[in-house]
Amino acid sequence: MMNDIINEARNKMKSTLHVFEEDLHGIRGGRASTALVDRLIVEYYGQDTELRQLATISTPEPMQILIRPFDKGALKSIEKAIQQSEIGINPNTDGEVIRLNMPALTRERRQDLVKFLHKRMEEARVAIRNVRRGANDDLKEFEKEGMISEDDLERGEHEVQKLTDQFIGQIDEAGKKKEKDIMEL
Questions:
Q1: Under 8 Å between Cβ of 69 and 40
Q2: Do 38 and 21 share a domain, yes or no?
Q3: How many Å apart are CA 58 and CA 147, to the nearest integer?
Q4: Torsion angle of alpha carbons 94, 98, 104, 105, nearest 10°?
Q5: Which regions in the chain score pLDDT beneath 70?
Q6: 110 with 138, same domain?
Q7: By residue range, what is the domain housing residue 20?
Q8: Among 44, 67, 101, where does a domain finish?
């Protein structure tokens, strides 16, 4: 019973970490990354479709993203989706492919990205702490109903705290790595 609560907390924390790491891919670093556009929603024949399902996306150069649509008819829709997105890059099209040339990040833009990164890190930490609180509440409920002993409650809370520390540590580690990537010239 107690192990179920701890395992459920571990799984929720893992999924929080996974979502956070996915978010990091979308934050632009010092070089071009396909993650910047691969989840971009494109209206394709009346359907909202992720760009990665419509095209091959690659980075032939450190500061360039190349998008090669499977269907040339999707070119205009992809171009429009990029222009309407918040990535702030104008697409260059030659009728076959779309090139996104990444401008160099200014010092100010890097600092804004780091601020945004820190905000996302804090949101992820709060989500982990919320999982901890939920697990501890469940453990206390079990103890109150006599399903586990007071010692089990303490052991369970200690175990949940260890998980919390471990996952917050992983969030901080991933965040530091991303910050280094953003600030790298």
A1: no
A2: no
A3: 55
A4: 150
A5: 30, 185
A6: yes
A7: 2-26+106-183
A8: 101
Are residues 158 and 67 both part of a single domain?
no
**β-bridge pairing 55-61 and 64-69:** antiparallel
Distant-in-sequence, close-in-space partners of 66: CB < 8 Å, separation ≥ 6: 57, 58, 59, 60, 97, 98, 99, 100
Q: What is the pLDDT of residue 30?
A: 67
Q: Which two three-digit tokens encode residue 93?
A: 């099209």
Q: Read off the pTM.
A: 0.71
Count up the domains in the chain and report the number. 2
113 and 137 within one domain: yes
- Rounded to 5°, angle at Cα 33 from 32 and 34: 130
Among 83, 101, 119, the domain-final residue is: 101
Query: How many C-beta neighbours within 10 Å does residue 122 have?
Result: 12
Residue 181 to residue 185: CA distance in whole angstroms: 9
Of 79, 97, 92, 70, whose CA–CA distance to 37 is shortest? Answer: 79
